[in-house]
Structures are given as structure tokens and as C-alpha cells.
Amino acid sequence: HTLYALGKDGLLKWSLQDERFSHWPYAVCTFSPDGKTLYIPGEYNKSAVYALDIVRKTIKWSFGQGKSYWNVVDSYGNIYLSTSVDSINSGKLGLFSINSDARLRWYYEHNQLVFGPGISALFQPTIDKHGNVYFASDSIYSIDYSGKLKWKKEYVKMTNATPLTCDNAGNIYMTYQLVSEEFHIMQIKSNGTTK
Description:
4-stranded antiparallel β-sheet
């Protein structure tokens, strides 16, 4: 539950302990485009993301419910994360786009990938240069900048996967591990066809 800030020399500049911050070691923090706000995933039974003013070292706002181990930020400062909010669509899981003040831009409902009883996953998304968001849960989704579904693609069931990556041409890449312990990499074109 502790955030550490290191200088260019690797020495500790400051630390901030907060029980609301996720204790999961693979939780991904992201910066706002101006570098003044850090978006930190929350603990399982807390908010999904916390906006930390890194100069004052204070929480500006929080958003969402439950575990959300990742968020991504576009060049306009909009934040994308998968979570739920009781007052939106009866608390169903969805991809949320909020602005830098935590105001809702749009919401897209989706299902979770379920590996087994009590085990589910949502893989970190990526954004292409046109603002399309790609993420994987029960399927791989492509959502345009305004929150509309472009395409949805089912994929092979796996036990583990890396975050999605996007190249300059809009191709999406995912490395994953099958139940048989084999590792694979998949490339999907921006129109949703497997390349």
C-alpha cells in the first residue's frame, strides 16, 4: 500500500503509504499528460482509481468500485478503466472513460473473462493514434473515441496474457499462455482481423 518516488539517481525522494492503494504488485499507475497527477489503482474493496496530486501528495478524487489493476490515459488527459459504479447501469462491469476531473465521458458494458471459480481477469488496454481503445476480457474489444463498439473478437482461452500493445499502423499485439503451457503471440489488424 506504499507509493515510492525515486529520483533519476535511484535514491528515494519520498514515499506515501495509504491503505486505499492496491497492494497487488502488478497494479499499473499512470501519469496525466502534464505529469502532475498520478492515477493509482485502488484496493479491492475501495475505489477503483485514485488521482494523486504529486506536488501536494494529496488525493484529488477517486472513482469506481472494486478492483481495477490498470488504467490508461490519452494525450487529452482522459482516463480509461474497467470497473463498476452502482449508479451507472445497476453497477454492471464496464469500460469507463472519465476526464481529468473524474466526470464521466462514456461507459461501455462488457463481460469478464472467467478462468475458473472465483478467478477472472481483465487485461490492460492500449490506445491507437486515433483514440480507439482496445482491451481484452471475455473477448478482445475495439471501442472508438466516443465510446461506440467498432468490433469484438473472441479468442482462444488462456491462462495468462500480457497487456495489449499497439503499433503506429494500428495493429494490436497480445502475448499469451495456453493451458498447455505453450506461449503464443497474436497480431490483430485495426479492423479486427487476425493477421
